[in-house]
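step: validate -> pass
step: tokenize input -> pass
step: predict -> running
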Amino acid sequence: MPELSPATQAVLDAFRSSHTGQGCLAAALRAAADQVVPEEQRPPRRGMRPGGTGALTPEEGAEDQRDATRRRLRAIASELEAQQSTSLTTMAQTNYQ
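step: predict -> pass
step: emit ->
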């Protein structure tokens, strides 16, 4: 079996580190976001340069698109985790009744 790339191995490791179905998926999705769209430390621009000094350059627009993609992937992971948490709470309440 061929060796996995470091990015693929990180996603697989994250998937395997969680012990629940949706938790595994959320962990893998977060790891994929970290590998494909690494977090960069810079202030958000929201379509304009800081101070409203004009339109973004193509490079700045691409940076903003990468940031948006990362936020969307992580939002999906958060939603999966919230759904899992709600399901576990419902199961626990049902067991106590």
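step: describe -> The radius of gyration is 18 Å.
step: cleanup -> pass
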